[in-house]
Amino acid sequence: MKIKGAWIHTPIRHNDERGHFEEQFKISQIESELGRTFTVKQVNQSVSNKGVIRGIHYTDSPEGQAKYVSCPKGAIWDVVVDLRKDSPTYGQWDAVELSAENGLSVFISEGLGHAFLSLEDDSVANYLCTSEYSPGADRTINALSAKLAIAFESSGITEFSLSEKDSKAADF
């Protein structure tokens, strides 16, 4: 992805008459591709209807939180936002479609914000996280912030549903 610290994992899919098999997560690949470790401390899962936007979420704690996000059912338009003030891509975003069909996953480093738009009803998003949820460090930025101008409409969806927390979040 154009934002340093965000990386798309494209699995090798092995198809046969039974279906397919792929390696969705492999720590040795993260270590070789990104030169870092990734210790999973919490696994989250959400189910969202078409048009639901979740995020922009990030963790403001000393250790931060990296995420590895996949979509084993349905499809989501996954968005990464650079929130690191010293980064050359501060305030920029990048996105990729994750779906059961394409098998892609995205790695999101500490200091980056994360949001997604569900492209289908009952889309499932799985998140492997490097830190446990901490309510005191949980932060949200409004995904519809005009300053970020995230192109959610490019999906063809024009009506969005956000939680009260996400819709009342501060603009970037």
From TrEMBL:
InterPro entries: RmlC-like, RmlC-like_jellyroll, RmlC_Cupin_sf. SUPFAM superfamilies: RmlC-like cupins. One of its GO terms (cellular component) is cytosol. Its EC number is 5.1.3.13. It comes from the Bacteria. GO terms for biological process: dTDP-rhamnose biosynthetic process; polysaccharide biosynthetic process. Signal peptide: none annotated. One of its GO terms (molecular function) is dTDP-4-dehydrorhamnose 3,5-epimerase activity. The active site is at residues 57, 127. The keyword Isomerase applies. The record marks 133 as: Participates in a stacking interaction with the thymidine ring of dTDP-4-oxo-6-deoxyglucose. It is an enzyme of class 5 (isomerase). Keywords: Isomerase. Transmembrane segments: none annotated. PANTHER family: DTDP-6-DEOXY-D-GLUCOSE-3,5 EPIMERASE, THYMIDINE DIPHOSPHO-4-KETO-RHAMNOSE 3,5-EPIMERASE. Belongs to the dTDP-4-dehydrorhamnose 3,5-epimerase family. This is dTDP-4-dehydrorhamnose 3,5-epimerase-like protein. The lineage of its organism: Bacteria, Bacillati, Actinomycetota, Actinomycetes, Micrococcales.
